[in-house]
Amino acid sequence: MNKYFDLGKKLNTELLAKVFFQDYKLRLPKTVENKISKSRLFLEKKISDSSVKIYGVNTGFGSLCDTEIKKKDIKLLQENLILSHACGTGDIVPKEIAKLMLLLKINSLCLGFSGVRVSLIKHLIKFYNKDLIPVIYEQGSLGASGDLAPLAHMSLPLLGRGEFYAKKGIVKSNIILKRKGLKLFKLSYKEGLALLNGTQFMLSYAVWSVFKSIRLNKISDLIASISLEAFSCRIDPFSKLISFVRPHKGQLETVNNILYYLKGSKGFNSNSDYVQDPYSFRCIPQVHGATKDVVNYFKKIIEIEMNSVTDNPIIFEKENKIISGGNFHGQPLAMGMDYLAIALSELGNISERRVFNLISGQRDLPKYLIYNSGLNSGLMISQYTAASIVSQNKQFCTPSSVDSIVSSNGQEDHVSMGANSALKLYKIINNLTTLLSIELMNSAQAFEISNKKSSGKIKIFLKEYRKEVPFLDSDTALYQYISKGVDFINNK
Questions:
Q1: Which residue has the higher pLDDT, 52 or 405?
Q2: Three-class SS state of 148
Q3: Measured at the alpha carbon of residue 358, what is the angle toward residues 441 and 276, in degrees to the nearest 5?
């Protein structure tokens, strides 16, 4: 039986995750329809007065904003806009991101400030509910005039152009539409512009990144707990007294997680052979905690954005105004994603340092965590791989939001480059998952060698992991186990 989400409700991260991951269908309540219709009726009345110039409705776009469009060509203008702006290149955007784009665009139009017809929104809802997700390309957005090229590709199937994702690759939209019995959509005033103006490409990556970040923060604490135990670390740095005198929320949350995972561990609660541990172990609360605080900060930004109107111009029917502004500018998202990229990169950075220590031959652990080292290289090269990925992540941390290139003949003279921020962040998250897989492979190996009597939660977790990745008693090709570890983490 289908579950439905009534559009028009205020979204937050948890609700959006529920709707998206539990495959809810979208539904348009009558009250929301009425609000959208009022906005549309107001726009049509304004258009009927030929003396009123409305950007993108009866004028050209960008630097062509002063070019008046004849009344007979106004509808063609909207179709031309989508066709001319479908200029994306590069790799295909993952389907889950494209589906989020469609959902977030529908939600934004349902706020009732865009002047589109109810019929357009219902057509997009059909696409979403039937899992007809338009194919979108990564490159093309400057993150300022709206995510123009990506959103144009999202809109092409309305006209029978472009492609849909299918089980076997991608298929031309006109073929799928005929198969499903869906007619082409005829655009009207402002509708092409309302579809293309907006931050939904950036926002979809941002939302996905926050979903993933929350999960990876938890799993990184769990994997770090195994490393702490395997490396015979002290419990002292995880005393709540330390966090009480420096009460950052993320720091205390990390301490609570570590103590929860290691509750009942005899070794962790009594280790005293070493006076202090390296920073990559001792400072887990401070480093992991700082990342959590950045995630929570950015979560607030995206929750504002997912409930915002980001196209242009905006229709204020009650105030009798149509205002052209700059809500499509992606600077809040661009800067936030650059910040989150740094925070997540640091989770990988400190993870690699723990791997380095685990394979170093210290604290009664054999070099490279293998018996008969010399004949066997063990997990030596896993640290090389981790170091390579960490270095790449650091390069991806160069902020895109400080860059800008003038476009549209100087009319659009400052852009956010937030789309590039989004793509870098996506790569960093995938890299971080690999880094955590490498740490887990090393910490599980070290844990088993050290024969620790750990907590029940750690034992259960490692028992599940061992179903996918075995203990290594001699050299083998490690790439297969890193890959299996990535799948294991993604499924947790």
A1: 405
A2: helix
A3: 135
In the numeric block, which tokens belong to residue 178?
């005929």
pLDDT tens, position by position, 227-254: 999 999 999 999 999 999 999 999 999 9
Q: Would you give the DSSP letter of residue 163?
A: E
Q: Is the dihedral of CA 455, 461, 463, 469 positive or negative?
A: negative
CA 452 to chain centre: 37
Count, in order, helices (H) and strands (E) of the chain. Answer: 18, 8
Tokens of 146: 């709206």
Distance of CA 144 to the CA centre of its chain: 19
Whether the CB-CB separation of 354 and 82 falls below 8 Å is answered with no
Catalytic residues: 55
Q: What is d(CA 405, CA 417) in angstroms, rounded to the nearest whole number?
A: 9
Is the peptide bond prior to 313 cis by the omega test (within 30 degrees of 0)? yes
What SS3 class is residue 134? strand
**Segment 54-109, tens digit of pLDDT:** 777 777 776 676 777 777 777 788 899 899 999 999 999 999 999 999 999 999 99
Beta 4-6 vs 25-27: how paired, if at all? parallel
Residue 63 is predicted with a pLDDT of 64
Amino acid type, 191: E
Four-residue CA torsion sign, 249, 255, 259, 261: positive
Distance, CA of 327 to CA of 314 (rounded, Å): 9
User: Which H or E run includes 15?
Assistant: helix 13-21
Domains and CATH numbers, the chain: 4-198 (1.10.275.10), 205-490 (1.20.200.10)
